[in-house]
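Dock dinuclear copper ion; give full complex structure.
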Amino acid sequence: MTEESDYPDEREQKPESEIDQQSVAKSIVEHEDEIRTALEEMDAEPPEDKEVGLQLPKLDLGRRQFMAAGSLGLAGATTGCLDRLDGDNGQTRRGVAEADVPPGEHDDYYAFLSGGHSGEVRVYGIPSMRQLMRIPVFNTEAARGYGYDEETREMLEDSGGYTWGDTHHPRLSQTDNDYDGRFAYINDKANGRMARIDLEYFETDAIVDIPNTQGVHGACAQLPDTELIFGVGEFRVPIPNDGRDLDDPDEYGSVCTAIDPETMNVEWQVEVDGNLDNGDGSKDGRWFFSTGYNDEGGVNEAEMTRDDRQHTKAFDIPAIWDAIEDGEYEMINGVRVLDGTQDSPLNQGDRPIVRYVPTPKNPHGVSVTPDNKYAISSGKLDPTTTIIDIEALGEVDDPADAIVGQPNLGIGPLHTAYDGRGHAYTTLFVDSQVVKWDIEAAVEAYPEDGDGDSPAVIEKIDVHYNPGHLIASESYTADPEGDWLLSLNKLSQDRFLPVGPVHPENDQLIYIGDDEEGMQLVKDTPAYPEPHDASIVSADKLNPTQVYDREDQPDKEYISSDDNEIIRDGDEVHIKMHNQRNHFGFEDITVQEGDTVTITTTNVESTPDILHSLAIPNYDINLKIAPQETREVTFEATEPGVHWFYCAYFCSALHLEMRSRLLVEPAD
Ligand code: CUK
Ligand code: CUA
């Protein structure tokens, strides 16, 4: 199970010319002998052992085939579809031996990974770990024309005008506690924003700049039907943060923000004691849980780590709506803000709006089990996770009485994912491990959990190195698939060829579909800085469009080849032109220096994957125009001269010829 890093040894390779061909042949023969011996030994094992080892339905693969496939690296060729198993919904799934999806075949899952301070979201296929797409969100990205046309520029401008963000928690919309394929939501920790990605087009379609908060970190949807999106403030600041109480940290506060998922308007905020960190919602829509690591209200490391216990905060959503109905809020920067601090009158009655569950120490991740029984909150600076009984939380007088388990798991527990079979998987940042444990066993052992590892611990696997989040397939739904686990490791150190002082992160894929075999590390994937969290969704739950429909863009003018037109009105020039293989609607466009130029252009192709772009040298413009899509840009013609505008997507054999002249006549 354990993989030691042996990278330095492997690098001592001889130049090819020095390699003794005979010794190569000899070692191949020896290697094949070893495999044969291993296979013979397996065949000698009693058949009942095989039964125990392969409990999963339809996993009809003998250990011999598995060994052969794994050792020879011929997964697709040797095992074929023997290795497929059925998911809960009857879909065929790849098993561990088919983790290398053969060329031309598709993955079983999409994984949506945050890109950290790159500001984007990435899409991987699981189990291949192939990167399928990158979706710019808070950054600009010329390859997708994002931030270079009117629409996306305006969206970025209206949400603060920043050129970067820090994405951490991509969460997908759900209906009835299952992915509905509509939207993904993603936070911006840097600039306090929340964005929405339309999963029909895989494009960011809305960003909201959230007032009264800084460091919007944890994010999730209210389940079961995505009625709200929550984002929580990690940095305590004065509210409003307008220069008041600058150096008076006692006056700082942190809020949980609820956003309408359709309008992306902020609905309300609840201020709490301490800060907020990660969040997850109960499956029935009643609770939103958030950890927080700075109940001390400190402003430096020593202060923030002073106490041994902080709180996991449980926001009672219906109680908050009731309080709003009763007018128990203050309008701050146009938002209804409720007082959810411990001494607030709203927390004194028999239906407090926020319940404070004591949790050791500087808790980080919190996630709700698929069956909605527990919220599990990780200690980070304490070796335990805290298991909160969700039903009990609504009944007990003292929230501490809702704690029903506190297993000792290892050093630095950060985040927990689920396989739907009663197991939890928790990352141990300091130990560089993932620990698999039995949730009910931890509840049974409580409170006599002892000093060492909890009896609930089933197995640990080394990861490389220092894992942050981990996510299992469909772990955030009520019905996880329980086959793949992604460990998003913060350091790769020596796992890859060196590429300078900035090392890639390492996203590791672990097979968890076989409880008897245990966790199996399947592959390393270098990742550009820096994924935090991910959501893994079955491929059949998404239905992205391949070609735009004209009706998809009702507010844009479709420009066909008959509609090419240049409209001049004083110093305003509006150019309407189509584009297609291998030309634009005009060969030459002449404007005057100082003109305000708007170009509206439609890609009139209807063939999938035939994209064009409108790249204008010297003007910092590159529009992406997908088939049947219309894009628009406005700019000042400040640079006199000849500017060859061209298509940057290699679209045909005459792609290079797909260019026209923008002639900007100098003003006298
Ligand atoms: S956080 Cu980065 S590893 Cu932003 Cu969810 Cu825990
Ligand atoms: Cu169109 Cu290249």
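Observed: The longest strand covers residues 178-188.
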